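User: Here's a structure from my thesis project, written as structure tokens. My advisor, Dr. K., wants to see whether a designed sequence matches the one we expressed. Can you design one independently, without my sequence as a hint?
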């Protein structure tokens, strides 16, 4: 019996080896098909994403150009505002020189005329008028 059992076990081992070989061949075939499908999908994705990537590059280029143009515009506005500010300060200095200078001179002339009038009054002897004025103000003094 040992000879028959040995042959039987060898037959079972051979059958198991054949089944394992068939399973491995089947797995290799399935893996080959799967690899082919993955490669096909990869090609399709590249075909579909290629134009999208090109559009994205185009959009990025446009955004970069718009950003550069915006930076230039900001620089121009900054120069314009600083120029306008400088001109406004210069204009204010000129206006102040034109108005304040003659106004001071006019006030000096008025002060000079008041001094002349006071001198003329003091020469005439109208000091009673000045005293009366001070006397009028004395009752208002609260001390």
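Assistant: Designed independently from the structure alone:
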């Amino acid at each position: 019996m040992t000879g028959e059992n040995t042959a039987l076990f060898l037959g079972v081992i051979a059958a198991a080896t054949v089944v394992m070989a068939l399973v491995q061949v089947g797995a290799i075939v399935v893996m080959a098909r799967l690899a082919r499908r993955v490669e096909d999908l990869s090609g399709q994705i590249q075909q579909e994403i290629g134009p999208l990537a090109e559009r994205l590059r185009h959009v990025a280029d446009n955004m970069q150009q718009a950003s550069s143009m915006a930076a230039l515009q900001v620089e121009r506005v900054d120069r314009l505002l600083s120029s306008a500010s400088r001109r406004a300060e210069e204009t204010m200095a000129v206006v102040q020189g034109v108005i304040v200078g003659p106004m001071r001179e006019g006030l000096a002339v008025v002060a000079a005329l008041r001094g002349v009038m006071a001198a003329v009054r003091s020469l005439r002897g109208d000091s009673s008028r000045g005293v009366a004025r001070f006397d009028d103000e004395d009752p208002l003094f609260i001390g």
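When you compare it with your expressed construct, this may help: The chain has a mean pLDDT of 86.
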